[in-house]
Design brief:
single chain; about 400 residues; alpha/beta; Rossmann fold; 2 domains; six-stranded parallel beta sheet; 13 helices
């Protein structure tokens, strides 16, 4: 996993501390629609305030192509102030002289939020000048954005070339929470994967399959596997360009550890009010599409989860946003939260499903980062963590 310094290793009193947080939250009607990531980042901000640091927070928000107003950080600043119970000064820029003056003028304990880091074209390119601009704002840099630690951007990696850098408490918690599944998971160890595309999860499937006792696959991605096994899947989502690779995984020495749905909830069209039927996996009508695992499969998956000692779940079992295609995700979520062993849930949609059901506090570890967690489970080194490690060597 590597070694890095943490906040326990540095004195921040009277110093300027730049936190790269993950405040990438959904915005609807000019307000934050889900503040899970803001609340997850809050303890680090509060700790630094109470330690007497001037706290400068930065994050990206969405995928702006330019300085689009709908991606500005104003609603995030408002919600952070609301849940934190302290003033948050939102700055109109990311770096530059005006930002530097504002940071220098801020008193210990004050919190400033920079504008969306992706408003700077150099952010995603890890531009060295932008990285130096971030470093000019800080005496200490804290990487606390696990959800962005797999991106080699200026605000996650580049800044660490120029200022003492440490891992924040949320990042440490994430790395340890997911890392424990890699190091020595208790068995039986079950992985549950869903979501739309198998291409997003093939690396994890290949990496984890030799380590798990069972891998249960639902969601849109299961139809590529079912077609690879020779089933007719109607108009369900299939990634044709991945079929050969998937056939290779299924034919491998570990292919028998993969559990696919026996029955499917199908729809006559992709709509919340579509007609819904439950059919066997070998009886999907030609012009219908699978939008959830069926009830027999949901019960079987839930029983397997309850019989495991460790479970990792990433990706819903169906289109859970629509009530009539939520049952599979609901059953998996409830089995996880009834489970007495170690449970890790990662990925925005899985977390959203748990929150929709009011079950987010019932798992061992709820991850703020989907892609970063998957890359860790693939055995990859996250660029953000690699950037911190050199400070532990000095």
């Amino acid at each position: 996993m590597g070694k890095y310094l943490t906040l326990d290793d540095v004195d921040v009193a009277g110093r300027r501390v730049l936190i790269r947080a993950d405040l990438n939250v959904p915005i609807a009607g000019g307000a934050v629609a889900d503040d899970f990531r803001i609340r997850a980042s809050l303890p680090t901000i509060v700790r630094l305030r109470e330690a007497g640091a001037t706290v400068v927070v930065c994050s990206h928000l969405g995928r702006p192509k330019d300085r689009e107003p709908e991606f500005a950080m104003g609603p995030v600043a408002d919600r952070l102030a609301e849940v934190g119970g302290f003033p948050v000064r939102k700055l109109d820029a990311v770096v530059g002289p005006e930002v530097e003056v504002a940071v220098e003028a801020a008193a210990p304990g004050e919190v400033l939020l920079l504008e969306n880091t992706r408003f700077e074209l150099g952010e995603k390119k890890n531009d060295p000048d932008l990285a130096r601009g971030f470093a000019a704002l800080a005496d200490v840099f804290v990487l606390d954005a696990f959800g962005s630690a797999h991106r080699a951007h200026a605000s996650t990696v580049g800044v660490a070339d120029h200022v003492q850098s440490v891992a924040g408490p949320l990042l440490v918690q994430e790395v340890e929470g997911i890392g424990s599944l890699l190091a020595d998971p208790p068995h039986p160890f079950t992985v549950v994967l869903g979501g739309a595309k198998v291409s997003d999860k093939l690396g994890v499937i290949k990496s984890l399959l030799p380590k798990v006792d069972m891998m249960l696959i639902g969601g849109g991605m299961c139809f590529t596997l079912l077609e690879a096994e020779g089933y007719e899947v109607g108009s369900s989502l299939v990634e044709e360009d991945r079929l050969e690779e998937v056939r290779g995984v299924l034919a491998s020495g570990y292919g028998d550890r993969i559990g696919l749905p026996d029955d499917i909830a199908v729809a006559d069209r992709f709509a919340a009010d579509a007609e819904r039927r439950v059919v066997a996996r070998d009886a999907i009508p030609g012009d219908w599409m699978g939008l959830d695992i069926g009830p027999d499969t949901a019960r079987a998956f839930a029983a397997a989860i309850r019989g495991s000692r460790a479970v990792f779940w990433n990706g819903p079992m169906g289109v859970f946003e629509w009530e009539r295609f939520r049952e599979g995700t609901d059953q998996v979520a409830r089995a996880l939260t009834d489970h007495a062993g170690y449970t890790v849930v990662g990925g925005g949609d899985s977390v959203a499903a748990l929150r929709l059901l009011g079950l987010e506090s019932e798992v061992s570890h709820l991850s703020t980062g989907g892609g970063a967690g998957l890359e860790m489970l693939e055995g990859k080194t996250l660029p953000g963590l690699a950037a911190l490690e050199k400070w532990a060597e000095n």
